[in-house]
C-alpha cells in the first residue's frame, strides 16, 4: 500500500512540474510581430500605435521607455523574445538632436517638417531601439508677416484653381477622354524601405498581377500563413497602400489609387 501511495505522489509531482515548465517553454519559443509607430513627446511621453502581439507594444501612452539625465533624454525599448518580423517608425519632437542610437541594421533616417523619423525593420531577431537625444524645447512665436504671407498664398492658390477650372471647362471632350484613358491605373505610391519583407512581397505580386489579385492567390504564391497574411494586408490597408473588397466568397486586394 505504501508503495502505491509513493508512486501516486511522484506522479502528481511530475504533473505539477509539467504544468510549470510547459508555459515557460511556450513563452520562450513564441514568435512576435509588430508594425508600430512610436511617437516621442517633449514631456517624455511615448505614444504607441499599430499592430502587434507583444503586450509591451500595445497601443497606449506611457513614460516607461524614457528617462532624463541633465539635458539629455534616453529612449530605451528593448524587448525579450524573438520577433519573426517587425517594422517601426520612431519620431521625435521638433528641433531634436540625436546624440547616439543603437537600432537594427536595416534602418534609415529622414526629416519631415523638422521632425526626425527613424524607420527600422527586423526579421527573426529581438525588438530594440535605444536612442539618446536632446532638444531645446523652444517654439518661436509667429512672425508678424506670417498672416500676410498666408493670405497671399491662399489668394494665389484660389486664382490658380479658377484658371485651371476655366481651362478644363474649355477643353474639348475628346481631349478630356484621351487624358483620362492615358492616366495610369492600378498603381500605388509607397516606400519599400518602410515595409516588412512580407509586405513588399505581397505588393510585388499585386503589381505583377496588374494591380489587383485575390487573397487566396496571394496565400498560394507567398506561402504565408493565413493569420500572418491577413495581418500584413490589414497593415497595408491602414497605411492606405491597398484596398480590399469582398466579391461573393472572394476577397479582392488592389492598389489604393486614391479614387
Task: Provide tags for this entry.
three-stranded antiparallel sheet, nine-stranded mixed sheet, Immunoglobulin-like, Arc Repressor Mutant, subunit A, 259 residues, alpha+beta
- Shape type: flat
How do the SSEs run, as a string of H and E?
HEEEEEEEEEHHHEHHEE
Q: What is the makeup of the main sheet?
A: 9 strands, mixed
* Proportion of residues in β-strands: 35-45%
Shape-level CATH architecture of one domain: Sandwich
Structural class: alpha+beta
Which spans of ≥5 residues are poorly predicted at pLDDT below 50? 24-28, 138-143, 174-185
Distance between the termini: 81 Å
Radius of gyration: 27 Å
Helix amount, in percent? 25-40%
- Please state the average pLDDT score: 82
Number of helices: 6
Number of strands: 12
CATH C-level class of one domain:
Mainly Beta
At CATH level 3, the topology of one domain is Immunoglobulin-like
Walkthrough of the structure:
Helices cover 37% and strands 36% of the residues. It has 259 residues and is an alpha+beta fold. Among the domains are: 29-135, Immunoglobulin-like, CATH 2.60.40; 195-255, Winged helix-like DNA-binding domain superfamily/Winged helix DNA-binding domain (Arc Repressor Mutant, subunit A, Orthogonal Bundle). Strands 1, 2, 3, 4, 5, 6, 7, 8 and 9 form a nine-stranded mixed beta sheet that branches. A three-stranded antiparallel beta sheet has the order 10-12-11.
Entry summary:
With 259 residues, this protein is α+β, with helices and mostly antiparallel strands.
